[in-house]
Amino acid sequence: MCKEFEQEVQSMSSAEIAAGYVRRMVSRESSGWGDQTEALKRLARNYKLPFWTLNNLRIGRAKTIEAGLRDRIREAYLDLCERQIRRLQHELEIEKAAAADDSLIDIENEAEALAARLLAARAARKERKAQ
Prior knowledge:
By secondary structure, the protein is mostly helical. It has one domain. 79% of the residues lie in helices and 0% in strands. It has six helices and no strands. Helix 2 runs parallel beside helix 5. It is globular and about 50 Å long. 11% of the residues are buried.
């Protein structure tokens, strides 16, 4: 990570960080411009997060957030990332079965490495929280 980005993240409030997670989750979960509210409802239901808090974070209305809720939103974001990686791995398996082409092996290896890094980061975070 570049130093400018690290400094920017360190200067951001918890609400701004959580809002970024929420916006990225809504972007990935929605199927278009008119689906944002439904995407928020799905995220709230799937991850047991308060709908209106998510909405207020998304639109920039929330200026503060509890640390526990911020952590839950981060975990939801990481779970969504993990689901996307699994989806990509599944699509690569389908493509590999359809065409006996070895050109996708590098991409498969990168997806595996990414999944392993994500799991390691989640485990390290849980370990830090337990201490």
